[in-house]
Amino acid sequence: MSDSKGLASGSLGTVESVVMGVAGTAPAFSVAVTTAVIVSAVGELAVGSVLYCGLIMFGIMLAFTHLNKISPNAGATYAWVGHVFGPTWGFFAGWGLLVASVVFMVSATIPAATSTLLTFQGLFNLSPSLVEDTRWVAFTAAIWLTLITIVVTKGIKHASYAQMIFTVIETVIIFALIIGAFVEYWGKPAHMPTWNWFSPFSFTPQTFAAGALTAIFFYWGWDVTMNLGEETQGGHPPASSKGAFWAMVNLILFFIIMMIVVLIVLTDEEIAAANTNVLYAIADKLFPQPWSSLAVLSTILSTIGTVETQILQFSRSMFAMSRDKMLHPRYANIHPEWQTPWVATFVIWLLGVLLLAASSTMESVKSILDSSVLAIGFHICFYMGLAAFACAWYYRGLLKTASLKDSFSHVIWPLGSAILMSFLGLYLLPTFDLITTLIAVGGLAIGIVPLLLGRYRT
């Protein structure tokens, strides 16, 4: 099994790219997992946090789409930062994504596992304690991870077909929740909507940082469209860039609406009690059984979709870094029939299973999710911030020669987003507990080892 064939170029069109970008952020999953965390941190300002973080992430998206003009590359951030700032910075940008993706295998599959166990509990009258038993949750999560890995390994078209089906079903369920929530609770909201939810003056630096670092997790994943650039149709702009743009526009609107829905339907106590089952808690107040259980289905499908896209991101980034000899060349092997980087895909499956086994020893499901979400937020700030700095530096000449519009979209907005990303990561780093700090900082620092090994080989 060698790389006698490359990746399956031209396999994805614009619509498939948009679906990949939306599925990469996993709307239902993100709301289910992160809502309790962000509401406990900033309360009703969660709406504003999602809005302003969306504007920051839009600047990052602009940076990615402009850097994509250099050359579509499976390594995306790794390749572009390396092109602008040199191979060492490029390596650590790629490494930050690899570490975040591996940690995400825990934070993503855990909600799918709890939703699955919740479904089985209702169908077979199993013990309610199973949903909070970290060993059963980790075991179920490992099964989901294995099944998804098999689909991804079999080819990019298989993955895109699965995403299209999952996203359509998930969208129908979520729209039903949104419509039901506004019809039933707009006149009697659990939290009375006010403009203070959106006002930038409602934030202090502390609340802005706390809300934004968690809100970043909502948006992360759309950049899978860029990692699939070599497998996406070209054009001006290419389908990968158009996919990223329209995915981001839709996601900002969706997350703002969903945060409002959560706050008007659920009280603070209900949000905290729901933990990773916020969508089910909303559905349970809106619809009778068995229809309310469809919210659990949407969470499972959304989780499957985002795990799939993160496996794609990890495997394509590792493939590109190995192709350039930054990592061992074995990880660049392409399956001759499926045209996927099967060795790199196997690596993330193995690391994900090992992390799930380690997480089963933690005290609660909530502690697993809290640590992983915060650590991933730090990694996102690191590698996406580097990409935005690279874009601003690469196109800096436009400030003298181009129109205000081009200067703003190529330099000013990406640079502002990069600065805010850096602020968020550095500001909240001292607030992490030991486990989160080890995952966040230690995960990046350990990259020195493969970097030096790669230089020794070459």
Automatic annotation (TrEMBL):
Coiled coil: none annotated. Keywords: Cell membrane, Membrane, Transmembrane, Transmembrane helix. It holds the Pfam family AA_permease_2. One of its GO terms (molecular function) is transmembrane transporter activity. It comes from the Bacteria. Gene3D superfamilies: Amino acid/polyamine transporter I. The chain crosses the membrane at residues 12-39, 45-67, 88-114, 134-152, 164-183, 203-222, 243-266, 294-319, 340-361, 373-395, 407-428, 434-453. It is found in: Cell membrane. It is a multi-pass membrane protein. InterPro entries: AA/rel_permease1 (IPR002293), APC_superfamily (IPR050367). GO terms for cellular component: plasma membrane. This is Amino acid/polyamine/organocation transporter (APC superfamily).
